[in-house]
Amino acid sequence: MSGQGTVLVTGGSGFIGSWCVIALLQQGYAVRTTVRDLARESTVRAAIGKVVDPQDRLSFHAVELTADAGWDAAANGCDYMLHVASPVVAVEPKNADDLIVPARDGTRRAVGAALKAGVKRVVLTSSVAATSPRPGARESVSDESIWTDLDDPTVGAYARSKTLAERAAWDLVDGSAGATTLATVNPSMVVGPILSPDFSASVQVVQRLLSGTVPGLPRLGFCFVDVRDVADLHVRAMTAPEAAGQRFIAARDFAWMADLAALLRASLGDAASKVPTRRVPDFVLRFAALFDKSLASVTPRLGEKRVFSSAKAQRMLGWRPRPVEEAVLDCARSLIATGAV
């Protein structure tokens, strides 16, 4: 056991999970991580080893979000848990329960195991999808006091899954009357350097621009944040006494797709030769969405500037996220280096 303590990170093969493992190893913790199949251990070790040597401080447990087996053994003896694992898809599923059930029930299993093991704190990776106001305003600013309204019929399966999973975690911890506390980290669109070709759906925003698979630039924009800063916020929320019982939005600045395209072209030279330059009118994207389901979920947000404030994390935990330009360019360079574009 490390002098800093032992942390269970669920979903260590994922984009955020792997950087959480790295951040903890860099700070001297012993880390256990979960994967669905132990055959992935060597691949995950190799990816993490690009940044930090795990030595003998990293171990693996096989668990599934949809099954009870293995959770108690993974959590037993841990001081903390970062529950990062959750299903993510690029396209909204036909059946919302395909996302909601594993997200909600996996959270119940993870938090239940943490409560049974008596860990000091669970940090749950939620999403700004769980802190979003009802659509309508062309511009909005959200903070942690806002919960996504599940009575709104326009809320998609992913946002429902993250909101229900986070609610489940709060209900379990609030009802336990035990020593385990909970904090949540609610990231916006996460980019930054990838460690393997197995990257998250959020990185596809940059990847599709670089590869030219998007024919033009729609009036879409997002609040971005670097994955390394998301991992840093997880560790801060894990250890700060004042973080107990708190939600923390992890977000930096808002950027339109056209802003990203201009940044890539200005900074990467020939490597950005396929990045589109022309704008796509709204009606064109809406028509294309009739045939491409990956577009259907974003067309309601055309022209919408939805901003998420991380002032609370900065004020309470001293969190300082890096500029969006750095996050996007490091993401792009890593995509190029790994042959993903």
UniProtKB/TrEMBL annotation:
The keyword Oxidoreductase applies. The keyword Oxidoreductase applies. One of its GO terms (molecular function) is oxidoreductase activity, acting on the CH-OH group of donors, NAD or NADP as acceptor. Coiled coil: none annotated. It holds the Pfam family Epimerase. Residues 7-245 form the NAD-dependent epimerase/dehydratase domain. InterPro entries: Epimerase_deHydtase, NAD(P)-bd_dom_sf, NAD(P)_dehydrat-like. This is Dihydroflavonol-4-reductase.
